[in-house]
Sequence to fold (483 residues):
Amino acid sequence: MFPNSILGRPPFTPNHQQHNNFFTLSPTVYSHQQLIDAQFNFQNADLSRAVSLQQLTYGNVSPIQTSASPLFRGRKRLSDEKNLPLDGKRQRFHSPHQEPTVVNQIVPLSAITFTLLNRAFTFFCGGFKLSHQILELFETCQQQISDLKKKELCRTQLQREIQLLFPQSRLFLVGSSLNGFGTRSSDGDLCLVVKEEPCFFQVNQKTEARHILTLVHKHFCTRLCKSDMPQVCMSPDITLLKMPLTLSSAGYIERPQLIRAKVPIVKFRDKVSCVEFDLNVNNIVGIRNTFLLRTYAYLENRVRPLVLVIKKWASHHQINDASRGTLSSYSLVLMVLHYLQTLPEPILPSLQKIYPESFSPAIQLHLVHQAPCNVPPYLSKNESNLGDLLLGFLKYYATEFDWNSQMISVREAKAIPRPDGIEWRNKYICVEEPFDGTNTARAVHEKQKFDMIKDQFLKSWHRLKNKRDLNSILPVRVAVLKR
Fold:
C-alpha cells in the first residue's frame, strides 16, 4: 500500500548514499582547547586581519596548523617586533650569565588585540552554540518512526471502513506526517480520494465534498444499521451502498467535528495514538506536494533541522496559524526551501526543473510515492552551518525580499514577479503552490497580521545577530515541552 511504502525512511535507494560530510546527527564533542585551535589560523602578522573563522562541520572539525601563528615566534622572527606596540613586545628574560634561547613563547596581547580576538572567539563559539542548539532541538522534536506507524495504523483501519461506503476510494496520509517535516506533536492529515481510475473524479468542494464528509462524520458519531442508512446518489460515479454497516471506528474515533471551510474537513481524534486528524476529500494536490516536499527534505541534510526550528519559532511568535490570518506550515516550508534555493551558492535546486518526469501533475496517484526514490542527494558547495542559515533566513525576509512586487516560487527556484490574477491582487504575501499555482499564503489578508509577521522577522534577526543564542528568539525548553 502506497502510504506504507517508505515509513520513516529517507526516500533514497541504497545506491544513493549521502556523500556530504558537512552534517551528521551525532556531532563529536570536542574539548575547549580543540575548539580554540580549530577557530584561528593566523597566517598574517596584521592582527586586524588575522582571524579566519572556519566553517562549522559536525563530526569533522578539522584541526588547523598553529605553528605559523604570530603568537608563537622563534628568535628568527624577533625583527618583526619592531612593528608591534610597546606593550605588545616580547618580555625578555635576562640573567647575569647569558640570555636564554626562547622559542615559541606566547606574546602578551595589547588591549586592542585582545578585544579583537575575544570578539572573534565569541562569534565563533556563538555560531557553534547556535548550530548545536538547532540540531539538539531537531533531534528531540522530530517525528519518530513509532509516531508515524501509529498514524499509518489509523489510516489503514479507516480506509477499510470507508471503502464500505465508497468501494473505489482510497485514503492517503499527507502533509507533515509524511513529508519529512513533522514533529512529535504534528497532526495527521488524511486525503480521501473517492475515485482515481480511469480519471480523477472532480469533486466540488462546496457541495459534493461537504456532503461526502457529512456522511463520514455521521458514521464517526454513531453506529448505523440498515434501517437507519439513507439512500444517497450524488452522481453516476458515486453511490452509497445499501448494506448493513457497523463501523468499528466508533470505538477508537472521538470528538469528530465537521468544519465547513473553503476546503471542508472532518476533524477527529484517534484514541489509540492520541493524534488529531484532519480528513479532506479529493485534495489531490496535497498528495503530490507531500512527496515533492519529502524529496526536498531528504535531498540535503541541513533542510529538515532548519525547517523544524523555523516552524517552532513561527509558532512561538504566533505567526504560524492560517486559521488566524497568519502563515500556514506549508507556506513556511516553501519559504525556507525558496531561501535555500536563492543563496549565492544554492543549497537546493528546483526539482521540478531537473526531474520534470518525476513530479509531473499527470502521474497517477499510486505512482507518486516512487518519485523520491529516483532522485539522488544534492551535493551543494555551500558549507554554511545551521546557525548561519537560520540567521540568513530571518535577514532575507526581514530586509531583502520585496513583498510588494515579488512572489516566492519553489518551482522556479527564485523570486518572480507577482501575477496579475485576481487571486494575487491586494495580497500581502504571495507563495506559489508548486503544482496548481495557487497562493498558499492567501490567509494573510489583513495588513495588521502582515505587519506583525514582518516585524517578527526583523526583531528576531536583530536579536539573533547580537546574541547568537537560539533562546533569544525561541525558548528551547518551551519548544521541547510542546514537541
About this structure: The two ends are 29 Å apart (CA to CA). The mean pLDDT is 75. The chain has 13 helices and eleven strands. Residues 7 and 466 are 41 Å apart (CA to CA).
